[in-house]
Design a protein that fits this description.
Blueprint lengths: L35 E2 L2 E2 L6 E3 L4 E2 H19 L3 E6 L9 E3 L11 E6 L5 E6 L3 H9 L2 E6 L12 E8 L5 H17 L5 E4 L5 E6 L6 H18 L4 E2 L11 E4 L9 E2 L14 E3 L1 H4 L14 H5 L16 H6 L3
Parallel strand pairs: 13-14
Antiparallel strand pairs: 1-2, 3-4, 5-6, 5-8, 5-9, 7-8, 9-15, 10-12, 10-14, 11-12, 11-16
Helix pairs in contact: 1-2
């Protein structure tokens, strides 16, 4: 789910990583010790969120506390938007990108000036306590900007969302991700794969934050257009629903300032509580769907080696040479 990019340069003297809010999520009312997760009291802990899997509000908070080290590697320090379902009903959720009064202090905020010239407070989550505090407010999903709060104008990742038409099977989405990986490699860029917990795959390109948003967006569009032009029967690079029938939409629009994409390891507000799960390229080729990872089987993955571990050593950016590869 992408947000439209309508935000301009950040101003203000407050720290870019986010300042704490004044209110606290703590309560003076009587509580049980096991109602606390990462120091945050979870009210209505037994509220059922995903009845088909028996997942309660407290279970979701505990999952995010366990996933925090991995999730915050990617989402920490980034402006974040939330999908909140305050009553626990995933049929009645809403997307929130601005901070609100009364938010817990564990969720920091950053002022960002928007295209209108108006400055709004955006959210930043930097800790397990921040994740738990968000769950306490009814959050299920976390969506992040492609740039960190400290360097809003220079993204540290580029993302392609492979979004298939309902008639397209997962095997074709998987093949498309591999094809895009190879095209990126030919341009000199290494990439990562994540199954979204829905029906698609995200191909993620970690970047040293040097190129600014317009260059990243232009490169992503050119690459998507190139793939769609070469294989028009399989891919489309425009949002038009009419043109998407039987094809995979290569969504490059998340590569603009203010756009968001679901964070790695975020739970999705969908039946059975699937998780957006990073995978290795080898593992992707064995998967049969994009929504095969769930909260109750993530513990083993979180204790296993990080499938994206090698990317921590990569130092790649959109150099002039890389940019020229899609102009040929």
């Amino acid at each position: 789910m992408a947000e439209s990019a309508d935000v301009q340069a950040s101003k203000g003297s407050r720290k870019a990583e986010g300042r704490p809010r004044k209110s606290s999520s703590a309560s003076r009312t009587k509580e049980k010790p096991d109602d606390r997760v990462a120091g945050i009291r979870i009210t209505h802990p037994d509220r059922m969120l995903f009845g088909e899997r028996g997942i309660r509000k407290i279970d979701l908070a505990r999952y995010y506390a366990a996933a925090a080290p991995r999730l915050l590697e990617h989402a920490g320090g980034h402006p974040v938007s939330l999908i909140r379902c305050p009553q626990g009903d995933i049929a009645h959720c809403f997307f929130q990108k601005h901070a609100s009064e009364g938010f817990p202090r564990e969720i920091a905020e950053i002022p960002i000036e928007e295209a209108s010239g108006k400055t709004e407070d955006y959210m930043v989550v930097n800790s397990a306590a921040g994740l738990a505090a968000a769950v306490q407010m009814g959050t299920i999903e976390f969506h992040i900007w492609g740039s960190a709060a400290r360097r809003l104008e220079t993204p540290n990742r580029m993302i392609f969302d492979l979004d298939p038409d309902t008639s397209v099977g997962f095997s074709k989405v998987r093949d498309a991700a591999l094809e895009l990986r190879d095209m990126l490699a030919a341009a000199g860029l290494k990439s990562l794969a994540m199954v979204t917990g829905g029906k698609g795959v995200h191909v993620v390109v970690p970047l040293v934050p040097r190129a600014q948003w317009p260059d990243v967006k232009a490169f992503a569009k050119a690459l998507a257009d190139k793939l769609a032009d070469e294989y028009p029967d399989r891919y489309v690079a425009t949002m038009s629903k009419a043109k998407r029938e039987g094809r995979i939409f290569i969504d490059w629009l998340r590569n603009e300032r203010g756009a968001t994409a679901v964070a790695p390891y975020s739970v999705r507000a969908r039946s059975n509580a699937p998780v957006a799960a990073p995978v290795t390229w080898e593992e992707l080729q064995r998967l049969e769907s994009a929504n095969g990872f769930f909260i109750d089987d993530m513990a083993a993955r979180l204790n296993a080696p990080d499938p994206w571990q090698d990317a921590k050593k990569w130092r790649q950016s959109l150099t002039r040479k890389v940019l020229e590869t899609v102009a040929r």
